[in-house]
Amino acid sequence: MTVALDVLLPHHRDPEGLARSLASVAAQTWAGPVRAVVLDDGSPPADLARVEALAERVRAEGRLGLLLLRNPVNEGRPRSRNRLLDAAEAPRLAWLDAGDEWYPDKIARQSARLEELLAQGRDPARTWITCGYDMAQGARVQACRQEVGGDQHRALLLGRSLRAYLWTILAPREAFRLAGRFDERLTRLQDLDLFLSFVRAGGRIEAPEDHRPLCRYAKSHRGRSAEEIRACQRIVLARHAADAADLLPELDYRADRLAARVARANGRRLAAARYLAGAALRHPRLASRAALARLGLRPEPAP
Q1: In which band, very low, low, confident or very high, does the pLDDT at 219 lie, cut at 50, 70 and 90?
Q2: Please, what is the Cα angle at 188 between 182 and 193, to 5 degrees?
Q3: Which residue range or ranges hold the Glycosyltransferase 2-like domain (predicted)?
Q4: pTM of this structure
């Protein structure tokens, strides 16, 4: 018997991006029943009207079901995601952010891997399936693997070989209960917090064995707040890094470097310089390596 799937999509002020995302869901080769659950988080009336027209068109095409929910005012991504979790009914869940896209065989490949693991006796309440992805930054597209071996808690904290992106995940609904709710204080980095909570509660992240990209992520730091991201980093590290104290200098260094990139992408050069100075003070060795890489004297370190 084929298991049904709910795809959970938060949306705010991006009807064109939502249309691309829903088209990629409708184009899946997986044969099971799929319902898209879209939550519009207080978009302006003109955008909401376009989303409502899109929902009607998707329903009329008949390739997938669609439930459209709405927050009357913008409540933020973590609260919207919690509401989507409450609305989910299918035995399996996946996530997709408006503007990002799945490749046609994503759900089929992940479902096959999940079925294989369940046949081996894996606990469905402790199993998430991630996948490789293409990260698009402007004209540059980078294929990224998800390495699921080893200590996943440390790997997620470092974010080099295993990254916390919710739209890569397919899992039984009960496996999301293991991770708990989204922390509504975290206006950013809710994915990382949830991934870490899942792993620390005894969950295990797996992936199709060939690691090829199964989705496309449009990454941009434009319009984001460096201070907001850095504050969320502090919350996540305080909660999850106590048993990885040896990593804290590097984690704080990387957090400052990320804040610097966000500030620079938004034209805030003084703020970027301040975060870079803080990073250099936290971890002089890594700062020196990054400086040598910029001069072309050694390979570029992992972001």
Answers
A1: confident
A2: 45
A3: 7-117
A4: 0.94
* Mean pLDDT across the chain: 94
Residue whose entry in the numeric block shows the structure tokens 């992940």: 110
Query: Which residues, other chains included, contact 201 with Cβ-Cβ below 8 Å and sequence gap of 6+?
Result: 178, 179, 180
Report the alpha-carbon distance of residue 66 to residue 51 in Å, rounded: 12
CA distance 111 to 118: 10
139 or 238: whose pLDDT is higher? 238
Q: Count the neighbouring beta carbons within 10 Å of the beta carbon of residue 29.
A: 11
Three-state secondary structure call for residue 167:
helix
Task: Return the closest-CA partner of residue 25 out of 129, 101, 97, 136.
Answer: 101
Q: Start-end ranges of CATH 3.90.550.10 in the chain?
A: 5-218
Beta strand pairing call for 34-41 and 65-71: parallel
Q: Cβ(129)–Cβ(114) under 8 Å?
A: yes
**Confidence grade of residue 83 (pLDDT, cut at 50, 70, 90):** very high
300 has pLDDT over 60: no
- Residue listed under structure tokens 């899942």: 198
Fold for domain 5-218?
Answer: Spore Coat Polysaccharide Biosynthesis Protein SpsA; Chain A (3.90.550)
* CB contact at 8 A, 196 and 153: yes
Report pLDDT digits (tens) over 169-197.
Answer: 999 999 999 999 999 999 999 999 999 99
